[in-house]
UniProtKB/TrEMBL annotation:
UniProt name for this protein: Small ribosomal subunit protein uS14
Domain of life: Bacteria
Region (Disordered) residue spans: 31-72
Function (record text): Binds 16S rRNA, required for the assembly of 30S particles and may also be responsible for determining the conformation of the 16S rRNA at the A site.
Classification via InterPro entries: Ribosomal_uS14 (IPR001209), Ribosomal_uS14_bac/plastid (IPR023036)
GO cellular component, one term: cytoplasm
GO molecular function: rRNA binding; structural constituent of ribosome
Quaternary assembly: Part of the 30S ribosomal subunit. Contacts proteins S3 and S10.
Keywords associated with the record: Ribonucleoprotein, Ribosomal protein, RNA-binding, rRNA-binding
Composition-biased stretches (Basic and acidic residues): 38-53, 61-70
A Pfam entry, by short name: Ribosomal_S14
GO BP, sorted A to Z: translation
Amino acid sequence: MAKKSKIVKNERRRAIVARYAERRAELKKIIRSPASTPERRAAAQDELARQPRDASAVRVRNRDAVDGRPRGHLRKFGLSRVRVRELAHAGQLPGVRKASW
């Protein structure tokens, strides 16, 4: 089980990313656009640099929804490989069966 502080910090980061996502996308579009002037591009880069570091989506870690395990995360289930295995063996994941071929 991950520390509660790590789980809370990650959730806080998700909220910050969501809050800044729209403006961040606009700024990146201005920076990438060949039609934008150098002054406008520089202003967009400055504004982007002034945003909090946690506003970047790459700082969010995918964690197990049950216990917060950071590694072995399966996006389809939102769980770690360990938790998926436990729940699948218990028959609690709909549509998941043991492989046989």
